[in-house]
């Protein structure tokens, strides 16, 4: 017997939001992963680095999954619950987690790191990335691409203008990285299937990824949530396309 709309929504509203772990969605939503394997790439570069920085580490889950860390590792995070979660997870690995607002400057001296990484940053301050990298250092990042999960966004907000759909395009990332004096050595974009299998998964996702439907609350969107619940019951999982891009850039050795 199908669970009721009210039960599914209430369960998702009670779910904890700290950290960047989406395991709550297991069995309720699915998303294909990019072919390049970001954590594997990051781990390989960490194994060769001497000092690394993870920008916007979230709850520290991705960094904690690296087998071999450099002698010096720092991580930044803006949201206080994530700072606490990342500290608990990463301090035993010798990582210093720094509470830092998502705005310049990064709280580190020039040329402090030979590796800077970031998975799904909300913003990228390219001049700051270039400043804290030492000459010859590398920036590696997996980022959300243009119009990601916009099937869901537009279900709630209606059609979005082209300039909004095109934001976060990898070509813009290349331009901004080069403007900061970095050489882009790898840039790849993939479009991946995502599906939401019940309305609780939708509520959880929109509560956690707060920029998808700004100001989202269950009360504010209850009618549309109920419509989507009925659509999933009638048609099956709600499909969407997730876009991700990988960018790797280096600071010239000179």
Automatic annotation (TrEMBL):
Domain of life: Bacteria
GO molecular function terms attached to this record: S-adenosylmethionine-dependent methyltransferase activity
Gene Ontology biological process terms in this record: methylation
Residues of the Methyltransferase type domain: 53-139
UniProt keyword terms in alphabetical order: Methyltransferase, Transferase
InterPro entries membership: 23S_rRNA_MeTrnsfrase_RlmA, Methyltransf_11, SAM-dependent_MTases_sf
Stored PANTHER family: METHYLTRANSFERASE, METHYLTRANSFERASE TYPE 11 DOMAIN-CONTAINING PROTEIN
Protein name: Class I SAM-dependent methyltransferase
Gene source species: Streptomyces benahoarensis
Organism ancestry: Bacteria, Bacillati, Actinomycetota, Actinomycetes, Kitasatosporales
């Amino acid at each position: 017997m199908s669970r009721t709309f009210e039960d599914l929504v209430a369960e998702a509203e009670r779910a904890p939001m700290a950290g960047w772990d989406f395991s709550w969605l297991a069995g309720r939503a699915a998303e294909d992963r990019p072919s390049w394997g970001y954590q594997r790439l990051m781990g390989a570069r960490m194994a060769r680095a001497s000092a690394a920085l993870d920008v916007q580490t979230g709850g520290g889950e991705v960094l904690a999954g690296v087998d071999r860390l450099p002698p010096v590792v720092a991580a930044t995070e803006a949201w206080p619950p994530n700072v606490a979660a990342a500290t608990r997870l990463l301090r035993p690995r010798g990582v210093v987690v720094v509470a830092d607002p998502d705005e310049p400057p990064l709280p580190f001296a020039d040329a402090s790191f030979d590796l800077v990484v970031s998975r799904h940053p909300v913003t990228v301050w390219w001049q700051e990335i270039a400043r804290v990298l030492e000459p010859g250092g590398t920036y590696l990042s997996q980022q959300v691409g243009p119009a990601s999960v916009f099937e869901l966004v537009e279900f709630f907000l209606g059609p979005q203008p082209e300039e909004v759909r095109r934001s976060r395009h990898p070509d813009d990332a290349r331009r901004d990285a080069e403007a900061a004096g970095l050489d882009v050595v790898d840039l790849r974009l993939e479009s991946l299937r995502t599906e939401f299998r019940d309305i609780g998964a939708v509520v959880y996702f929109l509560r956690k990824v707060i920029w998808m439907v700004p100001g989202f609350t269950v009360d504010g969107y209850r009618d549309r949530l109920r419509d989507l619940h009925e659509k999933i019951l009638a048609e099956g999982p709600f499909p969407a396309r997730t876009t991700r891009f990988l960018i790797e850039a280096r600071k010239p050795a000179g």
